[in-house]
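Supplementary Methods. Inverse-folding protocol.

Structures were first reduced to a discrete structure-token string of length 130. This string, shown here, constituted the complete conditioning input.
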């Protein structure tokens, strides 16, 4: 099992109300995705020919994240198809759920600018996400 991604809240993440700005949550999801992908497929994956593109995000804000909070992002597989998959996110602060989200990603070859079937090695790795 892969440990949740630890997020370092920066002063620039905050809005005028003193909590993490809503747009930053998508960055936190991206940090977590990269943390998980790195652990699952390694740092030498051919992202140009066997990559992914993000096609949809959803966020549900349950409680604000503040400057001194230490959020952790858990990632899990929600659904997998032939060319796309959906990841779910839970952001936890002090073991309390503060945010949930979803991302739909599509397997993509950047050189040919076309969707592809999810490569078998990537599919096997993604299915290991708890």
């Amino acid at each position: 099992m892969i440990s949740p991604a630890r997020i370092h809240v920066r002063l620039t993440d905050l809005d005028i109300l003193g909590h993490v700005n809503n747009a930053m949550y998508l960055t936190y999801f991206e940090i977590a995705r990269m943390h998980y992908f790195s652990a699952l497929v390694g740092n030498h994956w051919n992202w140009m020919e066997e990559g992914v593109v993000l096609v949809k995000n959803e966020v549900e804000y349950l409680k604000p994240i503040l400057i001194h909070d230490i959020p952790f992002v858990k990632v899990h597989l929600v659904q997998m198809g032939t060319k796309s998959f959906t990841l779910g996110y839970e952001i936890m602060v002090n073991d309390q759920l503060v945010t949930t989200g979803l991302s739909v990603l599509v397997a993509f070859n950047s050189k040919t600018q076309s969707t592809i079937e999810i490569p078998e090695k990537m599919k096997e790795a993604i299915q290991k996400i708890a």
